[in-house]
Amino acid sequence: MTDATADYFHSLGEHGRYPLLRATSGTIRFDLTGNGHAEHWRVAIDRGHIQVSRGGEHADCVVHVAKNLFDGMVTGQVNTMAAVLRGQIDVEGELHLIVMLQRLFPGRPASPATATRRHKK
Amino acid sequence: MTTTGSVSTLDGNTFVVSDTAGDIDASPTEPNGLFSWDTRYLSRWVLTLDGHRLNPLSTDDLHYFETRFFLVPGTGTVYVDATLSIIRRREVVDGFHEELTILNHSATPVTLTLRLDAAADFADLFEVKDHLKKKGKYYTRIDDNLLLLGYERQTYRRETLINTAAATHVDAGGHTTHNSAAAIDEHGITYTVQLGAHGSWNTELHVGCSLWGWAANQRVTARTETGHTRKDMEEDLAQWLAEAPKLECDWEPLKHTYRRSLTDLAALRFAPMTSGERTLPAAGLPWFMTMFGRDSILTSLQALPYAPSLAATTLAELGARQGSRIDDFRDEDPGKILHEMRYGELTAFEERPHSPYYGSADSTALFLILLDEYERWSGDTKLVRDLEYEARAALGWIDQYADLRGDGYVWYQTRNPDTGLENQCWKDSWDSISYTDGRLPGFPRATCELQGYTYDAKKRAARLARTVWHDPTLADRLDEQAADLKRRFNRDFWIEDRKYYALALDADGAKVDALSSNIGHLLWSGIVERRRAHHIVEHLLGPRLYSGWGIRTLAEGEERYNPVGYHVGTVWPFDNSFIAWGLRRYGYKNEAARVAAGILDAAEFFNGRLPEAFCGYDRAVTKYPVPYPTACSPQAWSTGTPLLLLGTMLGLQAVDEHLVVDPALPVGIGHLALLDVPGRWGHRDAYGRGRVQVRADDRLRKLRPQLSTLQTLVNRRES
């Protein structure tokens, strides 16, 4: 069974450098819940350099969210900002860190009709 | 809606719109209420005394965040019982406070029933605007001194918390007693007031607007992180006004307009939920108290010589939210600058794409223009270096994603046909782009001003690449691309037999031939060939476009022209301010002064506060500017308009290390000075003298600097 969240964090950590976040520093912990247990992922951002680890250590920003919802966020099915506004995500600490990080998440997948309309160079 | 008789009290994106008695009685379509984060937290807030509504004697607009209503009981007839007064003082500071005071002017003690009806519909501003129905359920809770009104839809929850305090009675001898608090029911609060002879009674209410789910199992109010007091706000406003240049002028209404503009601009500052204390201009009351790419950028440009910090924040915030992925629902692409951010229920449930929405084809080029203009004024090369990545991404968007037909122009076509915007230029209503015969072109569309902005953005980015980023190769390439764009634009958009530029190109690359104010923005951008400028100026100030108050969005004689049509015949002050800047750029000083005078003259009729738009009727017909029925006010880029017009009259320009002043004043203004204009030069004064001496008796006759006659006057003097 594929795990969208684990796949996403692995590729996030492998790639390592993100110019979109080069002005951002801080740590975010994701507390993902579901099926009666919680898993923790910790993302450390240091001026665009990202390191991913597992574990429940302290972080500047703690994001509580259901695992299946998070799977949707990292595959573009769920918009992070909208999910925050509708109360599906609890954010403790520095909100701006998750606001910046979610820019790396993919956009909503195209429906076939609109995809053909987009101009490709 | 009508804004007649409505009173607004605001702080950033929390605001109250009520009638002149302070009551909120929202109908489905009236934007009255207490709003915060695009949600209506109070839709009913009605004060009655012994079952009767109260009559306003006067309303005192103390600060933008504070209003006082002086009320008396009515008897249902014209007779007003003057033995009681009620003072209702409200502030929007960290929530909404209201203080109620009743004064007994008679020697007879009275017992009164004071009632405040309260209800909240939690409408999303989009629902108010588009008359939509709610999908969740309401609940109410009563606690000690608390009436809680709630709304819930799945995990989405918003609550209004109305707190009452004990009331205080002061008798004629000055003795104070405290009464127990009020009786609370699900629909409001009732006070039984025992008022002695010449006594006074007083109580306070606090209304909090809360969002749920922000932090684990706790309720937080929207402004917890930036909590501030009334004293902070008074000091902040005083400092804001003190830091702005001082205006000296012999035309009194202009001073009033200037002060009004500065104060409204302060009121419209808004800290997005995630930015901490940094503020940028929200677009306008009541519909647009949020971050708009285009509006925030254009307002920051208008305000550059007065409040350069707005530009810095706008650039930083929009840069931090620059598009990073392809998302068709949100019309997002990498490098694109956002259109609009919203926080309400429809956005939360992704029924609207505003989290944020990227459906504007101009904000990306405008971002680059602001970045360059900001550096010219401030000398802040650090910000330009910090935003180099974003600026390059913006340039990348223009070349890679905006050119939908692959022919070197910027085009738009929404990829979200259900809730996206059809027209992604500043004239964003559905019918704004038409041929002369009234037909609407297909998509994609390439409006002319988008090409102008793109030309200007590339020229300006070339300068930054050369001087700040030290990338001469990029600079040369951008200059070449800009020159090529200008050449092609002048070939493909010019309508030779009418001597103006087409409003747009249609999906087939053919010209959309209506005459519009958009051609004025082309002057601002510098894309107009010099030999053609006089044709453009003649159209702009000719009878089809110029109403006597200002330049219409669409020319009289076009099939879709309508003087009360939102983008098809009304006069938009901000539009005129940028056209005036464009006229200056091409050396048409008198014409710029004429446009400035018409709009500033109109401002006087609106008590110094220009609305978003007013009707396009000819000045000779109406004698005063007729407000557009649902125009927003105050609105940021209308608020910024007098500031930019002052700058164009004085001919202010930042050139190298200097502030260049080259005044051309309208008739009726004898002298005009801006003292302490901030910039890379420190602070400098800018003086202008009128070409016509204004005599004291002209002043007494209250001559306005209306310039309908300027042309003849100037011609006479120059001949």
From TrEMBL, chain A:
<dbReference type="InterPro" id="IPR036527">
    <property type="entry name" value="SCP2_sterol-bd_dom_sf"/>
</dbReference>
<dbReference type="Pfam" id="PF02036">
    <property type="entry name" value="SCP2"/>
</dbReference>
<feature type="domain" description="SCP2">
    <location>
        <begin position="17"/>
        <end position="105"/>
    </location>
</feature>
<dbReference type="InterPro" id="IPR003033">
    <property type="entry name" value="SCP2_sterol-bd_dom"/>
</dbReference>
<protein>
    <recommendedName>
        <fullName>SCP2 domain-containing protein</fullName>
    </recommendedName>
</protein>
TrEMBL record, chain B:
<dbReference type="InterPro" id="IPR032856">
    <property type="entry name" value="GDE_N_bis"/>
</dbReference>
<feature type="domain" description="Mannosylglycerate hydrolase MGH1-like glycoside hydrolase">
    <location>
        <begin position="438"/>
        <end position="604"/>
    </location>
</feature>
<dbReference type="InterPro" id="IPR054491">
    <property type="entry name" value="MGH1-like_GH"/>
</dbReference>
<protein>
    <submittedName>
        <fullName>Amylo-alpha-1,6-glucosidase</fullName>
    </submittedName>
</protein>
<dbReference type="GO" id="GO:0005975">
    <property type="term" value="P:carbohydrate metabolic process"/>
</dbReference>
<dbReference type="InterPro" id="IPR008928">
    <property type="entry name" value="6-hairpin_glycosidase_sf"/>
</dbReference>
<feature type="domain" description="Putative glycogen debranching enzyme N-terminal">
    <location>
        <begin position="11"/>
        <end position="205"/>
    </location>
</feature>
<dbReference type="Pfam" id="PF22422">
    <property type="entry name" value="MGH1-like_GH"/>
</dbReference>
<dbReference type="Pfam" id="PF14742">
    <property type="entry name" value="GDE_N_bis"/>
</dbReference>
<dbReference type="InterPro" id="IPR012341">
    <property type="entry name" value="6hp_glycosidase-like_sf"/>
</dbReference>
